[in-house]
C-alpha cells in the first residue's frame, strides 16, 4: 500500500530485488529447491576456511571490545560447527515441501471446484542477534518454503554473515535459482533495521529473533506484519494432587536442564495443600542444581529449613524471564489462583501442570491460554525439533498466523483456486 | 508487551473489560454460545421499534447533512431488514463451533501425546463504516468463535449502533455470558480509533472493514496486529484460446452484476491473438451494461467501431478500484505479460482467467499470487457464503494468518497440548 522509493535506500533496493526473486522461486518444484539446498551444504563445507577467517575478524573485534567469553563462544564458528550447520541444511532439504499442499478442498453445490493450497509468503525478513548459524538456518528454511529472505544479523557477526551469505548466494545461483533469493541487509547501523520495518508492500513478514528489547522494538515500530517470537516466562504448577517424584523431576528439568533458552521455566507455583510435602524436597533439589529461589512469604518460610539460597520475590520476579539459575516461586490457594497468576504474568509461551487428577489437568489446559500447555511433562518440550517438525524458524508467542514452534508450513500462506466451466453468479 | 493505563482512557478501560470477558467466554461449550446467539436473534426482533427509532436519528442527521440517498439507504434499518439480521444470527448459531477442533495431533517417538487445538483469538476489534448490520454480524461471529468483540462503527451510525449493542449486551447477559463480551467503543471521534490501534496487549487483532483510506490508516498506524481486508482491483484475463461466449459472460458478470463490491472486476486484459475477435463483442456488451471503458491504445482502436464509451487509460486506471460502471482494459502480448501486469497493479484480491487451454490455466494459477485465482469462473465467487463457509467477517488481502474470505476458523488461534507421564528431556 505504501509507495517506496527504492532508489534512495539500499535496504529498499534489496527488498525490491528480493521481491523479484521471490516471484521466481515461488513456483519452483521441490527438486529445484532441494538441489539448491544441497549445493549450499556442499559449498559451506568446501569453503570452511573462508568462513572461519571471516569469523575470526568478528571474534577478534568482540574480544578487543571486552565481550564475555560466553557471547564469544556463541559467535564462534569452528570447522566442526560449520559441518553441523551444513548437515542441518541437508536435513531441511529432506523435509517435505509445504508449498502446493491442499489445505482444504471441495466441490461447491454449483459444481465449482474449490481448493485452498499453500503458497510461499513471498519476502521474509529475519532480524536476529549474535549466532551466525541462524543466517544459514533461516535462509535454508525460507528457500525450502519458496520464499526470498532478507537477513539482518547482528553487527557483531557482520563479517561472518557477509562470508556466509556470499557462499549461500553463489550456491543458490549455481543451482539455477536467483542469487537475490538470499540477501544480507546492507549496512551495520540501526537505520537498516528501521528501513526494513517500514518496507510494507515489499516485505511480507518480519520475524525478530533475539532478546526481549529487540522484539519489542520491532513489534511496536514495524508497519510490516511481524511474528513475535520467543520471550518465555514459563510456569510449572504443582497441583494439590501430584506425584512428588514426578513434580521434582519436571521442575528441575524445566528450570535447570538449559536455563538460557526460552522454554526454560522461570516460575514455580505450588498448591497450598501439597506445599508442606513438596517444598522441602523441591527447594533442596533446586539448591543442588545451583538455583536461587525468589520466593513469596510461604516459600521463604519453607526455605528457612532448606539449604537453598532464597530471597523475597517482587513483581519484577513474577514478570522476569531470568534465563539463568534463578526461579520465582509462590504458593497458591487453588488451581484457579494458579491460572490467575499465570494469566497476569505469563509471556504466553509454555505452562506445565504436574497432577494426578484428570479434572485438574482438564481445567488447567482449558483455562491457560499460552502457545503450549504441558501436562506431566517438562516445559522444555516446546520446540520444533521435539514436536517433530524437523526444523524451527522460531517460537511464535503471538496469536495471529502461527503460535508456538514454527516449522515450514508456518512460512507459507494460502490461496484459493476456483475452477468452473464458465460459472457466473 | 506495552503497559497501558486503562484509568486514563475509556477505550482502554473497555478493552480491559473485554479481556476479562474473553477469558470467561473462551472455555464455554458450544451450547452456551448458541443459547446466547438465539437470545440475541429473539431480542432483535422483540425490540425492533427501539432499533428503528434510533436508526431514524442517524438517517435524519444524514439527510440534514445532505448525504446521498444511496448512503442513507445503506444506513437504514427497516423491520424487514432487522428480521433478516436476526435470521443471519440464527444461521451463525447453526454453524459448527471452531473452538476445540484438533488441527493436528500425533504421538511423539518418546510417547508424549501432542495435540494442536483451535482456541479463540481473545479480544477482536472491528473498525467499520456505514452499515449498522455489521454490528450484529461481527458480534455474532466473534461470540460463536469464543471471542470478545470491541465494535467501532461509523459515527454516522452511532445511535443505531448504540441501540443494537445495548440489545446485544442484554441478550448475552440473559444467557449467562458476560455483557462485556460485546462492547461499542466509547466516543465518536477519531481519537477512539487511535487508542484502539495502540491497545497492544489488550486487543489481539484489529479488522478494519470499509474504504481503502480507513484500511490504509489502520494498517500503517496500528501496533495491534491487523488483518487487512477487502480492497479489490480484480482482473479478468481472456487468454488466446478462450470460448468467446464464456469470456463475455464472465466479463459481464464480474464487472456489472454488482459493481460496488470488492470482488467485482476492475480491469480486463485480452491476449492480442484473440483481441480482434473478442473486443468488438466485449465492448458492445459492456456498452449495453452501461460500462465506460478506460482503454489502452489497442482497446481504444477497437472501441472506434463500437457504441461503447471509451477514454484513454492512465496509470491511475490500472490501479483503480472503481466500484462503479467503469473498467480499465488493455491488450497484452502473452499470458506472461498479463501476469506481469497483474503482479504490478493488483491489490491481490481475485484474478480470473478465461481459457480452454489446460496449460494456460495451470501457468496462470501458478504464477498469479492473489487470495483467489478463478479459472473459467466469475471473480464474484470470492465470498465466504459462496465458498460454503456459512458466514464471513471480511476478505483478507494479506498473507499472514488468513487470506481470502474469513469464516469462523479464521477468528481462532491454536494452542498445543503436550501430555506426558512425567516426561523430561
From TrEMBL, chains A, B:
<keyword id="KW-0521">NADP</keyword>
<dbReference type="InterPro" id="IPR020593">
    <property type="entry name" value="G-glutamylP_reductase_CS"/>
</dbReference>
<comment type="function">
    <text>Catalyzes the NADPH-dependent reduction of L-glutamate 5-phosphate into L-glutamate 5-semialdehyde and phosphate. The product spontaneously undergoes cyclization to form 1-pyrroline-5-carboxylate.</text>
</comment>
<comment type="pathway">
    <text>Amino-acid biosynthesis; L-proline biosynthesis; L-glutamate 5-semialdehyde from L-glutamate: step 2/2.</text>
</comment>
<dbReference type="InterPro" id="IPR016163">
    <property type="entry name" value="Ald_DH_C"/>
</dbReference>
<keyword id="KW-0641">Proline biosynthesis</keyword>
<keyword id="KW-0028">Amino-acid biosynthesis</keyword>
<keyword id="KW-0963">Cytoplasm</keyword>
<dbReference type="InterPro" id="IPR000965">
    <property type="entry name" value="GPR_dom"/>
</dbReference>
<dbReference type="InterPro" id="IPR015590">
    <property type="entry name" value="Aldehyde_DH_dom"/>
</dbReference>
<dbReference type="Pfam" id="PF00171">
    <property type="entry name" value="Aldedh"/>
</dbReference>
<feature type="domain" description="Aldehyde dehydrogenase">
    <location>
        <begin position="5"/>
        <end position="290"/>
    </location>
</feature>
<dbReference type="InterPro" id="IPR016161">
    <property type="entry name" value="Ald_DH/histidinol_DH"/>
</dbReference>
<dbReference type="InterPro" id="IPR016162">
    <property type="entry name" value="Ald_DH_N"/>
</dbReference>
<protein>
    <recommendedName>
        <fullName>Gamma-glutamyl phosphate reductase</fullName>
        <ecNumber>1.2.1.41</ecNumber>
    </recommendedName>
</protein>
<keyword id="KW-0560">Oxidoreductase</keyword>
<dbReference type="GO" id="GO:0004350">
    <property type="term" value="F:glutamate-5-semialdehyde dehydrogenase activity"/>
</dbReference>
<comment type="similarity">
    <text>Belongs to the gamma-glutamyl phosphate reductase family.</text>
</comment>
<dbReference type="InterPro" id="IPR012134">
    <property type="entry name" value="Glu-5-SA_DH"/>
</dbReference>
